[in-house]
From TrEMBL:
Name of the molecule in the record: Thioredoxin domain-containing protein
CDD domains hit by this protein: PDI_a_family
Keyword terms, alphabetized: Signal
Biased composition (Acidic residues): 164-179
Similarity remark: Belongs to the protein disulfide isomerase family.
Gene3D superfamilies in the cross-refs: Glutaredoxin
Disordered: annotated segments: 158-179
Signal peptide boundaries: 1-20
Residue ranges constituting the Thioredoxin domain according to the UniProt record: 13-179
A Pfam family annotated for this UniProt entry: Thioredoxin
């Protein structure tokens, strides 16, 4: 009986030791799939945002449910803008993989978060609904037009129809002033 107790104790101790050798990790979330027209950035390639084009960057994390939900909208936006507006780049940066960079350098407080960059500098943060393609499309095309000094397509259409002539949108003026 005494021998059985010693063997059982040794067995329990060895099982505990073996379990302690295994890292305690949570199951990894599946990565949000890449899109052919969305540029994937890292903390090392982020300097690409200084290339003279307007960059609409989504900061995301694979574990973020809303990031997963808007992935198709961001992809559709990138597909549309690649064909119609080569001066606008839709990109994304995984803050789960570049946590220090997102928190300390870019100051991302939550995901998803979308920001516009021009010449490597933050111009404006997108604060509207992520789930409406038309809102995102209008925001980025008008913001890019304002930043680049072009007439915004929607503003020109409104002026032709007699609506909104002479009105300024402070949000877009702030984006240009930030540069």
């Amino acid at each position: 009986m005494h021998k059985s107790l010693i063997i059982a104790t040794l067995l329990v101790v060895s099982l505990c030791f073996a379990a302690a050798q295994q890292p305690l990790t949570s199951p990894k979330q599946a990565k949000i799939p890449a899109s052919s027209n969305v540029t994937d950035l890292t903390e090392y390639t982020f300097k690409q945002t200084a290339d003279g084009r307007v960059w609409f960057v989504e900061f995301y994390a694979d574990f973020c449910r809303n990031c997963r939900r808007i992935a198709s909208h961001v992809s559709m936006l990138a597909d549309n803008l690649t064909a119609t507006a080569p001066h606008i780049v839709v990109a994304r940066l995984n803050c789960e993989e570049a946590e220090r960079f997102c928190n300390d350098d870019i100051r991302i407080s939550r995901t998803p978060e979308m920001k516009v960059y021009y010449l490597g500098k933050h111009a404006i943060t997108y604060r509207s609904d992520f789930f409406f393609f038309d809102m995102m499309h209008e925001f980025i095309t008008n913001t890019a037009a304002n930043i680049l000094g072009w007439d915004a397509p929607d503003a020109a259409a409104a002026a032709a129809g007699g609506e909104g002539e002479g009105e300024d949108d402070d949000e877009y003026d702030d984006a240009a002033m930030a540069l």
